[in-house]
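step: validate -> pass
step: tokenize input -> pass
step: predict -> running
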Amino acid sequence: MVEWIYMRNKIEQAFEYHQKGQLTNARDLYEQILNDDKQNHEVWNLLGILYTQVSEFDKALLCLQKAIELKPLPFYIENLAKMYFKKEDFQNAVDLYEILVKNNSENYENTFNLAMAYKNNAQYDKAKETYYKAIELNPKSTESYFNLAYLCFNENDTKGAIECYKKVLEINPDDWETTYFLSLAYMQDKNYKDGLKCFEQRLCKQSAIVSQEKTYPNLMRQKPIWTGKEDLSDKTLYTYYEAGFGDNIMIYRFMPELISKCKKVIFKPQEELKPLFEENSYGAEIMGMFKNEKEMNFDYHLPFLSLPYVLGKSGDDMFIHHDDGYIMPNPDKVKYYRDNYFDNDKFKIGIKWQGNSYYDKERILSVEDFFRLFELPNTQFYSCQTFEGSEKFEKIKDKYNVIDLASTFKDFSWTAGAVENLDLIICNDTSLAHLAGAMCKPCWVLLPHVYNWRWHNDLSKSDWYDSLKLFRQPQNGDWESVFDEVEKELRKLL
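step: predict -> pass
step: emit ->
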């Protein structure tokens, strides 16, 4: 009895360490206990959970399997399934959750986790069916509706996604994240009246405002956000960037309209975009990253992506078309590239395979998929891949005559000078596509199966840019089929 009490005290001490996040102490004590009592299934399970937390999956597997071998409790099987899920071994996770749900079909958590495992294992039909079972068990399961929305997007069922997000908001009206994703679904369906309103919940808007409050604390406290209702004909508006390069290039189409409504516009873009916008200012003052607060003077301010909302856009009026583009390249830079890199009579094609991988990693192309295009006759390819992903040019340069332009791009103004000399750009969904579209340069954009909202549901064309042609994966991860179509179209063009 004394020995049992001593052992329980050690287990409780180890578990307390574990709960407090003192994982090394917990691990050491768990292992001491198991040295004395190798049949202690409870401690094998706890040690397996700990190893799962620190992603030491091989050790976690041994511990959890030992616990189940000693006593096959459903709770231990759940922990093993969770370990497989975290390890991204979704097939094994599916196998275990199927057993758990079969043995207890009324357990909501395991039913939901089985649906998640199906979804991550690309078993989308089973995932959908299982999410609905989870909803039957828990009608207020916002997480089930939220994940069902993703599956609707996967099937190109935007209206279904909208209904799922609405269900979440019926249950939890203050869920800003769902409101944001609902905005993307609305806009993909070209319902900009509702979409832009919900889009005001986006996190990057708040981040942009906070950033400006740090830079201009006094001014930002004194000056209101422009709602679109106030007359700015004798006022100065300060608008500032948020989100990525491509977003700001796309929304820049509204700059001429904004200028017509204000006495003065001050626009702060990212430094990489500043020279390009200075050359296409439409009368706005394009400022750098920092200007002393005492030198700043404005009446209202606005995060840049709110511009279409405050301008009252609601439908096709979002798609302002400029026949020759609304971004013009610098003639001197166009000549520089023409003289130094484009002195040939071949069909000139620029390529890019990667943007910011922090968001939507599905957008990243495989460099090797371009190789077959490099062998087409009478073509000269140019790499426009900058920053992250540019190291993959090493895979190209020793095999093919592809010219690296990207290393010459000091900012987007230089990129525009090079783009003007190209006959065609082939790239993933990235800022280069927006620049090409804004310049009315032919560009083929290669999209993942679940693609960004701005390309809408009709992928035969781009509503935003007349010069863009869209190609979409027929299923998740299938870039080979995309490049089959690209090669076919390119051969026709040549």
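step: describe -> The longest strand covers residues 347-352.
step: cleanup -> pass
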